[in-house]
Amino acid sequence: MAYSDVALLSSDNDFIARTRAAAAQEGEADPVQWSNAFIWQMAGSPGFGDKYASALAAEVPRPGNDQSVISDPEILSAIQAIRTPVTQTAKKS
């Protein structure tokens, strides 16, 4: 994984939209704000940068929207992994 691949993925409008949709389904009151706050963690999730780089190299059109590149279940798992520590910290306060 190259940091440049993560950087490109973090600004992919299709990936951002899919992240927002998943965050909304997970109960985030403001999925736009949530995705703005956590898009770098999402893009840096294990394997995401490599998958995105491979898709770019293969000239996949709209790789951030292509489920064969990063699937919805992978996006969901990444969101759940990010939200869990945040949710547990909020409950302790």
Describe the structure.
- With 93 residues, the protein is mainly α.
- It has one domain.
- Helix content is 70%, strand content 0%.
- The chain has helices spanning 3-10, 13-25, 31-43, 48-57, 72-92.
- The chain starts with a helix and ends with a helix.
- The model has no long low-confidence stretch (mean pLDDT 93).
Topology of this structure?
Elements: H1 3-10, H2 13-25, H3 31-43, H4 48-57, H5 72-92
Helix pairs in contact: 1-3, 1-4, 2-3, 2-5
Structural class: mainly alpha
Integer average pLDDT:
93
Biggest β-sheet description? none
Domain module count: 1
Strand residues, percent: under 5%
Round the Cα radius of gyration to an integer and report it: 13 Å
List low-confidence stretches.
none
Number of helical runs?
5
Tally of DSSP β-strands: 0
Q: Helix share of residues?
A: 55-70%
What is the CA-CA span between the terminal residues?
36 Å
Shape: globular
